[in-house]
Design a protein that fits this description.
Blueprint: H1 2-14, E1 29-35, H2 39-49, E2 59-62, E3 80-83, H3 85-93, H4 97-102, E4 106-108, E5 111-114, E6 121-124, E7 131-135, H5 136-147, E8 153-156, E9 161-165, E10 174-178, E11 183-189
Parallel strand pairs: 1-2, 1-11, 2-8
Antiparallel strand pairs: 3-7, 4-7, 5-6, 9-10, 10-11
Bound molecules: flavin-adenine dinucleotide.
The site of flavin-adenine dinucleotide (FAD) has 19 residues, from helix 2 and strand 3.
Protein name: Ubiquinone biosynthesis monooxygenase COQ6
GO cellular component, one term: mitochondrion
Organism: Rhynchophorus ferrugineus (Red palm weevil)
Length: 190
Amino acid sequence: MCHNFKKQLYLFETCYIFKDVNKKFVGRHYDIVIAGGGMVGTSLACTLGKNAKLKEKKVLLLEASASKPFNIGGKYSNRVVSINKSSKELLERIDSWKHIEQSRFATVKQLQVSDALSDAFITFGENDDISYIVENDLIVKAVSVEVKKCENVNVLYNAKVSEYILPDYENNIVGIKLDNGDSYTCDLLM
Ligand SMILES: Cc1cc2nc3c(=O)[nH]c(=O)nc-3n(C[C@H](O)[C@H](O)[C@H](O)COP(=O)(O)OP(=O)(O)OC[C@H]3O[C@@H](n4cnc5c(N)ncnc54)[C@H](O)[C@@H]3O)c2cc1C
């Protein structure tokens, strides 16, 4: 605690761009801060939060937009991703795939690439799944449900990062400022 406070004080005394917020700074240090709580950021936060070896690490996920209810069902969203088997396995490891499975997705069983100037073509996936098409909102929903169960992960909505300062040779922590004036420091910004 004392060590962190000294590090924070040092950063905010020496970094020019944070001079103005120095007085307002309330001293919040995290081991890891993730900027952006979309599909990738939330999955990352969840993966860190569910890793037993990292359970002592404090993680902060900052998402610019408001927390929104996910209404999956009815009309399909046009924002989808094709995730490969490794990504599916990652989602399984962080207990999120089951939420997708219980909802909806489509499996790509075969892929054929044809040449425009000849009859040549190549086919992938004779016996195995190639990928899974999942709506972006559904992935975010699935990982958001699980990240909330991680005690060492704090998720902040309406938290838009407006400035940050990366470590240099003199100090080794990162300073982050939100557009609402709140400030944080961390050892690793992702
Ligand atoms: C209409 C549409 C259709 C698509 N279709 C396909 C498809 O068919 N197949 C495919 O593979 N991919 C598709 N994509 C792309 C796919 O959605 C993206 O690759 C994927 O969403 C990237 O995820 P991400 O988490 O990196 O970024 P995003 O989903 O963009 O998430 C970034 C998050 O960061 C937040 N943020 C931004 N700035 C800040 C800040 N300063 N501070 C804090 N938070 C911030 C945003 O609010 C957002 O929640 C499509 C995209 C769109 C828009």
